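Q: Got a minute? One more chain.
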Amino acid sequence: MAEGLEDILRKGFYVWKGNLSIALPFLLNKIVSFILIIGLVVSLFSLLPIPLISDLHGVKESLRNASELIAPASIVIILLVFTVFLFLMMLISSFFEAGAIGMAKKAIEAAASPISRVVTYSPFTDMMDYGSRRFFDLFLFRLIISAAVLILVCLLFGAPILINIALSERFEMFFRGFINLGASLLSLSMVALTLFFVVTPYAIVIGDLGVIDGLRRGYKFFMGNKFLVFIFWFFVRYAVELISYAVTFIGMLSLSVALLFVHMPADILYLLRFNDYSSLMTLLAELSVVFIATILVAVLASLAISIFIISPLTTVWWSMFYMKLVEGK
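A: Always. Here it is, folded:
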């Protein structure tokens, strides 16, 4: 089956290369999420009595009135706003995720049949179609997984901490080890939960299933292909992202290092020799700006790689992986 995985990776790459529009849902998701974050910040400033601070007196006055910001009514408002924000983010991301998986499915089918590509493949229409039909099931799936994660955190990590706080200090060493064990079990449980249902979104969209049937299909899929799912998940999640991000950061940091340590040491030594500390501080400030700008460019480049390469490519790979193994049964 190793040859089958290699075939999926190779064919999936060419499907993605010929259908770069699959990046559209991920780009739109980032844009809409950014707008929602701005809306969240504006809402908090509008709903809470947060004054604009222009001087030291304003800072003191704001601190003096800090109790107003943590009043029960304010806490309720904050929780309500954040809850609405999280639900909107999950709904929107579910819509675009369903649309992206649908686009990948249609692209894979169209690549296998060039004639059907001309007649049926319309990326934007497919995104809207699959997104509108399956976003709510994906939303419910994310909600169920989030609830499961919360329960695991409370049981394996939160409960030992609360017990440790409640009991006397003589049990501190025992419960510290218990907390560390709980944290380790939590990490393993998170990985297991991810693997059990890693193909569930693809089962829901590609198989046109409801959330319960999708969960069942995803779990059965994993149980029937444990080793293949783990290998594929590990490669897609870690190897591809590590290689892509490493290339970006190495390139950007190489430029920064070249600017900092190739051209500038002679100038720094010259200024130190003549005790021109004022010019030295100016030079170091300029170098700091260059370094920060380089890091920002690297972060933006990594974001672009995630949106336009990693996310659509891995979506195509997972869609093809699921379709191939289901059809083979």
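A: The chain has 13 helices and no strands.
Q: Perfect, thanks.
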